[in-house]
Amino acid sequence: MVNVLPLVLLGGGVIYLDVYRKQLLDERFKLALVEAQIIAEALAGASDARQAALLIQLGKEQKLRLRLYDGEGALEADSFALAPPSFTLADPETETRPQRFARKLDEWSDRLVGAPPLPVYREPAEDRLAAWPELERAQKESLTQIVLRHAPDRTHVINAAAPVGLRGETLLLTRNPTDIVEAVRRARTLVFAAVLAALAISTLLSLFLARTIVNPLRTLVQAAVRVRQGRDRQVEVPRLPQRRDEIGLLARAISDMTAALRQRIDAVESFAADVAHEIKNPLASLRNATETLGRVEDPALRAQLLDIARHDVRRIDRLITEISDASRIDAELSRATFARVDLLSLTRAIVGNLEDRAQNEGHPIRVEASAGDYTVLGEPSRLERVLVNLLDNAVSFSPPRGEVVVSLARTGGRVALSVTDSGPGIAPDRRETVFRRFHSLRPEGEDFGNHSGLGLAIARSIAEAHDGTLTATDRSDGAPGARLLLDLPAAGPAR
Asked: What is the per-residue pLDDT for 175?
C-alpha cells in the first residue's frame, strides 16, 4: 500500500486534471454560445457603421476576434482590422525553456488520458466563409456552431459561428482562453507536488519497513542456512519475543521447527547407535561360533555351536525386522487414510487367533467390555500390531497359567483399552523406561534374545500417531501385575 500510494495519486491526479480541463472548456463553450447569439442579435438590422462600432467595442471588451461575412461568403468586417487585436496567439519559437517543457507535459497528459487530437488553428490564406466549416454549417442549419482547436502553442482556440439576421450574414467569434491552460498547469503542479511528497513518504516508510521486516527476515534466513549447513550445532534461531506480528510468529515457528528437527536428528542418531549395539552382540556371538566350529572335532560340541549360530541368526533376523518396522511407522502413518475400526471386534479376533494357534503359551486371555460403541478412527493393521505387542508382553511376564485380562471402556469421547497381567508388575520409576527402544528388562527364565526390546516402543509410537496415549499403571484391584492402558479418541457417528 505504501508503494502504491504515489502511483494512485499520479493516476488519480491525471484523471482529475482531464476532468478539470473538460469542465473549464464546457463552461467556455456555453459562454461562447451565448456571446455569439447575443452579438448576432445585436448586429442584425444594424447599419454598417453601427456593426463596425459593435465589433470594435465587443472585441476589445471581451477579448474576442469578431468577423462578419455576407450572404456570398465574403468577409465584410474584422474587429482585428478595424482596431488593434485584443489578443495575440503566442509563437512557439519565442517560448522559454520552462514554457516548452510545460507544453510537452500538456501533450503527454493528453496522450495519457486518451484525449482525442484537436485540429490546429490556422488563419486561411483567403479569409472567406468556405474556409471555416463551422460557418458553413451555421449558415446551412441556421444554428450556432462551436469548434475547439489548438493554437500553435497548444493553448485552446474556441470558434463560435452564428447566423445574423435575414440577409444571410454570418458571425464568427474567436476566443483564445489561455487562462484554461494556465489553470490546468497550476493544478498539475499541485498534483505533481503531492505525488513527489507521497513518493518521499513512501521511500521513508519503505526504509522503515526494510529495517523492521526485511532485516529480521534476513537474520532468520542466515540462521536457517547455518542450521541447514550444520556447521554450528548450537545455532540459535532468534525467537523475537518482542514482535507480536507475523514476523514474530514466523520466527518462533522456525525456532520451534528447528528444535523439533534437532530432537528428531538426536533420536535418529540415538536409534542408530542402539541398533549398532544390539546387532553387534549377536554378530559377535555368531562370529565366535563360526570361527570355533572349524576347529572343533567333537560332534556334540559342534552341534551346540550350530544351535548357537542358528539362534543368533534368528535373533539378528528378528532385530532387523523390528528395526525396519519401527523406522517406517511414522512415515507410513503420516500417509495412511484412517478408517472406522471396531476395537472390541478387533480385540476378540486377535485373542481368538492367538488361542487357536496356541500362541498364548497356555495363558487364558479374557476380554471384558460392557455394551457400547468402541469404534475409533485408525489404520487397522497398525492397531492390530499394538494389541498383539501388548498381549505378547503380558503373556511373557505372566506366571504359568496366569490370566491376562483385556478390558474396554468408553468415557465421553475416548475409548480406553487395558491389558492386565498377573506378573511382577512394573516399578513406578520404570514405567517410562519400558517404552524406550531396546529396553532390556525381561522376565526371569526367558531365553536371551527372544525379544528385540522394541515392542512397547512401537506400540506407543502407533498410539501417538492415532492421537492417543499408551501408559503403564498398577492393576486397579491392587493385585500383583502390570496394567498397560491404551487411550484413543472415539470415532464420531457414521455418515
From this structure: 93
